[in-house]
Amino acid sequence: MGSPAGHVFRVALLGLLLAGAAGLASENRLATAGGFERGFPGVALTERETVVVARLGGVVESIPVRLGDAVRRGQLLAVLRDERTEQQLRLAEIGLRSAEASHQQAQAELDLAVSRLARREEAAAMVSREEIESAREQVRIARAALARAQAELERARLALEQARRDVAALRLTAPMDGTVAGRWRDPGDLLGPGDSLMR
Length: 199
Known about the structure:
4-stranded antiparallel sheet; 3-stranded antiparallel sheet
């Protein structure tokens, strides 16, 4: 057993440690408009903190907001530039125009085949059965070609929609109202998919 003085010293030391821990917890808990924010050196974690990340990679072209700026949901935060993504949009636009032309051509060929068949059926007494069957086969072929052209047209439309979404993703916007609390990138920096930009 230790002496009474040693016991008193240990109790006093324990009290100082508890008080210091309570003071540190109080110091690291800061009131905010939306509740509380826990703060540590160089880090701020709030209940509604959101990190803005790039869905696609690209070079940072501009960042029209600064630290401390209040932003509204949907407000532009940064613009990226990626030649490959922009080229995919141009190619998708060309692909759609080509698919539309092919579809129109296939429709015209089907209309012509149907018209030819109708004329031969009307003149059945003067044409051979083989000619009528050949005209019917041409209609079947033209319908199959139109179905393929229609499917290609739908694929081209979907590709263009995706390309437009990708280009739109190069413009990063605020997911909610808030304040820019941190920024880790500058114009000219290269971002990869999933890289963080600010919070």
